[in-house]
Specification:
The chain has 212 residues and is α+β, with helices and mostly antiparallel strands. It has a single domain, classed as NADH Oxidase (3-Layer(aba) Sandwich). The protein has nine helices and four strands, in the order ααβααβαααβαβα. A four-stranded antiparallel beta sheet has the order 1-2-4-3. Helix 2 runs antiparallel to helix 7, helix 3 runs antiparallel to helix 4 and helix 3 runs antiparallel to helix 8. The protein is globular, with a radius of gyration of 19 Å. 28% of the residues are buried. The mean pLDDT is 95.
Length: 212
């Protein structure tokens, strides 16, 4: 395998970390690489916040757990024994990471104002316009996060792309002091892996790819 192929296939989601710090200079470099990703209309519609303050991380964990509990409240009579405790741990394991990166999405301005105006005249909202163009804003965030994950792996660290914390997206935004124009998208705990992950089972290429 060449270096990039080895990097891409070797990356794994890491959920347990050693109790060791990560130099801020490494985090700065990881974020710099993340922001080199392509983005719709070169909007660079992302914001990253690296969190090392344990009290802040704990506040986010508390908010996520409360969000999950509120979501499941009406199903509490159907929950298997110990399910809720297991779910709490599953959505808050990031609390033990030395660094947690919060990813936010900002507004994407479409490059052609005439097209935007035409859609507005048809009654399209901003959200509907993004849907019309197959969500270039969300795709941009995904591209940046992929760059971030590969940069983390290349430096010998581990990370996990978490989206369930979005159940507390507004609370996380307020905790981190972001304005309402920033939409919370993901939490990414980063640290030195505390275990060696098992190999990932991939779908056969014929299941996901064809030529015409």
């Amino acid at each position: 395998m060449n270096n990039f192929e080895s990097l891409a296939f070797g990356r794994r989601s890491i959920r347990k970390f050693q109790d060791k710090d990560i130099p801020l200079s490494d985090i700065d470099e990881i974020i710099r690489i993340a922001t080199s990703a392509p983005s719709g209309c070169n909007s660079q519609c992302w914001r990253f916040i690296a969190i090392k303050d344990k009290a802040v991380i704990q506040s986010i964990s508390d908010a996520v757990i409360q969000g999950i509990e509120a979501l499941l409240e009406e199903k509490k009579d159907e929950l298997p024994e110990n399910y809720l405790n297991s779910k709490r741990k599953m959505v808050s394991f990031f609390v033990n990471a030395p660094v947690v990166i919060a990813v936010f999405m900002t507004k994407l301005d479409y490059y052609d104002p005439l097209v935007t105006s035409a859609l507005e005249s048809k009654g399209y909202t901003y959200e509907e316009t993004m849907k019309f163009f197959a969500y270039p804003d969300i795709l941009s965030i995904g591209a940046a996060i992929q760059n971030l994950l590969l940069a983390v792996h290349e430096k010998g660290y581990g990370a996990c792309w978490m989206n369930e914390p979005a159940v507390a997206g507004d609370e996380i935004r307020k905790i981190l002091g972001e304005n309402e124009e920033s939409r919370f998208m993901s939490l990414i705990p980063v640290g030195i892996p505390a275990y060696v992950p098992r190999a990932k089972q991939m779908k056969d290429i014929t299941k996901v790819y064809k030529t015409i």
